[in-house]
Every structure is written in C-alpha cells, then in structure tokens.
Amino acid sequence: MDKIQMVDLGRQYEHIRDEVDAAVLNVVASTQYINGPEVKAFQKELEDYLGVSHVVPCANGTDALQVAMMALGLKPGDEVITTTFTFVATVEVIALLGLRPVLVDVDPDTFNIDPLAVEKAITPKTKAVVPVHLFGQSAQMEPLLDIANRHGLYVIEDNAQAIGADYLFSNGSRKKTGSMGHIGCTSFFPSKNLGCYGDGGAIFTNDHALAQKMRYIVNHGMQTRYYHDQVGVNSRLDSIQAAILRIKLPRLDSYNQARQQAAASYDAAFNGHPGLQIPVRSPFSTHVFHQYTLKTSGIDRFALQEHLMGKGVPAMVYYPVPMHLQKAYTDPRYKEGDFPVTEDLCKRVISLPIHTELDPEQTETITGSVLEFFDR
What we know:
Elements: H1 9-30, H2 37-50, E1 54-58, H3 61-71, E2 79-83, H4 89-96, E3 100-104, H5 115-121, E4 126-130, H6 141-151, E5 154-158, E6 166-168, E7 174-176, E8 183-187, E9 201-205, H7 208-218, E10 222-224, E11 227-228, H8 239-248, H9 252-270, E12 276-277, E13 292-296, H10 301-310, H11 340-348, E14 349-352, H12 360-375
Parallel strand pairs: 2-3, 2-4, 4-5, 5-8
Antiparallel strand pairs: 1-9, 6-7, 8-9, 10-11, 12-13, 13-14
Helix pairs in contact: 1-8, 2-8, 3-4, 3-7, 9-12
C-alpha cells in the first residue's frame, strides 16, 4: 500500500504526467510566461465551467479577496461581515485594507456562516458580507443574498474550498459556488480541489464594469501601459500554472466524485458512532469534500490524532483557534464565549485524508485506525 497522505499530489500527477510535462515545456518554449495564451484560454474555460461572464486570474486566493474588496470601493472603517470559523486569509485582507471585520458564528452542522447571525450584525457601517463555502459545500446563499439585497450589501463569496459545488435554490435552479454574489474568489493552491503546482487564484463576476476594474487592479492599476488610473497591485496568474490548470479543469468533476466516493466510505464506517459525527450534507448544496471533517464527542481529539499518526495516518485540525481569539486579530468587541458554536467546533473537529487517489485499501486502513482508538 502506498503511503497515506492528506493530499497525494504525486499519485495524481502520475495520471496526467505526459500532458503536464508537454504543456509546461510548450510554455517555456513560447517565452510567453505572463498573461500569455494559456492564461487567456484558461480564463475562458473557467468562465464556461462556472457559468459566469468574467473570470479575472490572479496570483493567489488571498489576492483575489483583496482585489475584490478594492474593486468594490470599500473604504477604511467600512464593516465587512464574515465567519470566525475560517482560514485567516478571509479576515486578513479585511484588516489589511483598513476595513473593520465583523465576525459571526456558524451553523453547528454545516460549519458555514449563519444567515441569522449575519442579519443581526448589520449596522449602518456594514458594506459587505463574505460567506465562506467551508470544507466543500456552499453556505446558505439564498437567504444571504436576500439579506444583502434588502440591506444594500455586497456579497463576496470565498470559494477557495468548494469549487465545483452546486447550490440548489428553492425554485429548483442551481448555480456553481462563486457565481452567485457580486464577486466570487478562489485559490488554486496545490492542495485545492482544482490546484496548480505553485500559487494561483481567480476572481469571478457577472458585472462587466467590476471585471474591467479588477483586471486593471491586478496589473498595477493599468488600463493603458504605463498609465495608472487607480491604485493597483501586482497579482497575475503565470502561464505555466494556467497551462496546468487547463489540464486539470476538465477533470474537476471526476476529481470531486472521487472525493465523494472516499467520503462515502468514511460515512459507512462512522455513521451512528457515539463518538463521531460525520459531515452533515445540507439539502441545498452538493459537497465536494475539500476536507472530510468529523466532529468528535467525549474524547481527547489530539490523542486521536496522535494515535492515527502512529498508524501512519495523517490527520489535521481545521481550525484549532477561531479568528476572534487569534492574537493578531484581538478586538475589544469580542471575547472567549461570544461565539459558542465555533469555539466548540475548534475543540472537537478533526479532518481525515481526502483526495482523488484514495483507494479502498487506504480508506479501510484509515477507518480501521480511527475505530481502533475507540476500542482500546
């Protein structure tokens, strides 16, 4: 059996090696390393996949969030509502721009931002809300969009963990995550469901004017070369990464299906276990399992992690400390106990390996090792 890894990019690469190697060499030979034809082709293909009018490639997912907020014209002191149970980048860019992060709690089952908490947090200074599609399934976008519409707020979707997931509206229609708000953002970090072999990101919108503005921002604020009409940044997806993403994008749905199959094997082993709650699938979203995250009960979560490591099974905790208790984001508005759902999750969640290359022998080893901990 191959070594079990949280994400096995090496084995994934073996299946696409010839295409990737040829694509990389073609870019090198072309000498069009920045904004070359591979970037433009990937942009169009991702627009078609997501069903959006505009994709703006950029250097990474954090930049995508920052550029989105810059393009919307948010000013220092404006409030942006987001979840306290997320990776730091979501809150980091709000703080970097001098905006005021307003944190709210999450749903205890899906771990996604609670729409009721969002509405309660709105003030006259609120300008935007950033739902994070955590671990692979959509936040509850229909009520969030309704709230935003009623209060005149921008919606910026953090889609770094759920690309390829579908949101199901009450009228029966469906849309890809990242395509529903004013702007969607994603990361192509190597471990993502759609990952490159370095850093990369993209921004999505159906608003032509916003798209144009973001294209200028990512390229130093230039519309015409050496004429800078607005403050920008240097954030571009390089052609080699775009060429790799073009190979992976047509496989994204099958990659997500492989993750779903692995998740189903885990479910079968753990469903009904008194010490483990399997991931809850919301009725309004498909789940593409960027992470397979269990909620433990009545055990030392870190003892389980140590036990698994001893069996050659990696396991990670996403996330051990919520944003409102992080030293860098200490805020007198928030204290321990203010967000009970998130604080409870941070003490109980643990994520198992999940990726496209997990085979039945590996999943059996992983599930057996987890259950063995409870049988000791």
